[in-house]
Design a protein that fits this description.
- The protein is an alpha+beta fold.
- The protein has a single domain, classed as Ku70, Chain: A, Domain 2 (Beta Barrel).
- Helix 1 packs parallel to helix 3.
- The radius of gyration is 13 Å and the shape is globular.
- InterPro entries: SPOC-like_C_dom_sf, SPOC_C, SPOC_met.
- It comes from Caenorhabditis japonica.
- GO terms for molecular function: RNA binding.
- Pfam families: SPOC.
């Protein structure tokens, strides 16, 4: 799936269908840095199927900034050196595959 297609899919969700969250390390913010580096260096996102939906995981990137601007324009938690990831949980409607 292209980035544009994914963005359109996620941006078309309402607040009951999509939740955004900041993913951090448990005790030390740097605990997550290897995973942040991996996604950043690969210019990739993580995708995991979870019960009832799909979890997308993004490092700091233009795509994550666009998604945050669409749903939470008042939140500014990402910058190039932050050790965080953005999680986007897209919930499936009951009865959908």
């Amino acid at each position: 799936m292209s980035q544009n297609t994914l963005y359109e899919k996620l941006a078309g969700c309402n607040s009951k269908e999509l939740s955004l969250g900041v993913i951090t390390g448990k005790k030390d913010l740097e605990d997550l840095q290897p995973l942040v580096n991996y996604f950043t260096n690969k210019d990739a996102a993580g995708v995991a199927t979870v019960p009832g939906g799909v979890l997308y995981i993004f490092p700091f990137c233009e795509f994550a900034l666009k998604l945050l601007a669409e749903f939470t324009p008042q939140v500014h938690v990402f910058n190039e050196s932050c050790p965080f990831l953005l999680g986007a949980l897209a919930v499936r409607a009951p009865g959908s595959p």
